[in-house]
Amino acid sequence: MDNAISLLSDSNIKSGQLADLVPEFYELKNVVENNDWHHKENIFDHTLSVLENLEKILRTLNKETKQFLDSRIDHISRRELLKVATLFHDIAKKETFSNNNGYTLCPDHEDEGSIKARRILKRFMLSNKELEFVLQIVRHHGIIHRILALDNGDFKKKYASFKKRFSRNIYPELILLAFADTAGSYLKKTHPAEFKSRIVFYKKEIENLPPRNKI
After folding, report:
1. pLDDT at position 153, please?
2. pLDDT of residue 201
3. Alpha-carbon distance 184 to 38, whole Å?
4. What are 29-49's pLDDT values in tens digits?
5. What is the residue-wise DSSP string for 165-199?
6. Which is nearest to 198 in space by CA: 37, 65, 42, 86?
């Protein structure tokens, strides 16, 4: 039997109520990252932290952006689908995890995550359009992090291309998720200047949401 997507709440996950329905979440407790972004942090806790950050950000948005996120992809709002995507954004780090003398990486976890998330989300009542919307966010959420690591010249070119590519579909969601992902990261201690630069960048981009089709 299909399950209502509303079951995928942070409270249900924290309480363990979804252990039988989505055991993949709880397996992430055993996947511990240690790198510039994470300090001995398991993926389960990280995921819930990102969702908490996202909730805080959503409350600060301007009226127009809130209305935009209230619009629906079939029957479910973009806001709720973004939360689902947030819960699944690192779901495949277990399968892609590598440890090099204590420094961990999860290469290609975005692509693998979209595949794994598809299997899991088939257990829930989502239309094909809603499912693909969530999977797009999961698949592409890491691009912006990599672009922001480039030097100024490459950054401008790559980011313009990124924005053009996604401006008419999931650009707002990618920006909001990237901001929430960065806000609670260990980057604040390992690379404080870069952390501050990224936060300033995201805040500026969010001020200009929703997209106004100017590109």
Report:
1. 81
2. 96
3. 9
4. 999 999 999 999 999 999 999
5. HHTTTTHHHHHHHHHHHHHTSTHHHHSHHHHHHHH
6. 37
Average pLDDT, the chain: 95
162, 142 Cβ separation under 8 angstroms = no
User: Is the pLDDT assigned to residue 173 strictly greater than 60?
Assistant: yes
CA torsion through residues 85, 176, 210, 212, sign? negative
Strands 41-42 and 32-33: antiparallel
**CA distances from residue 46 to 49, 78, 101, 126, 127 in whole angstroms, order as listed:** 5, 22, 22, 25, 28
Q: Which of 40, 82, 39 is nearest to 209 (CA)?
A: 82
Q: Are 155 and 123 in contact (CB under 8 A)?
A: no
In this structure, how many other beta carbons lie within 10 angstroms of the beta carbon of residue 155? 15
Domain ranges of the chain: 5-207
Asked if 142 and 114 touch (Cβ cutoff 8 Å), the reply is: no
3-state class (DSSP) for residue 126: coil
- Could you report the per-residue pLDDT of 96-111, keeping only the tens digit for each? 999 999 999 999 999 9
Residues 6 or more apart whose CB falls under 8 angstroms from that of 98 comprise: 104, 105, 106, 107
Question: Among 92, 184, 71, which Cα is nearest to 135's?
Answer: 92
**How far is it, in rounded angstroms, from Cα 101 to Cα 46?**
22
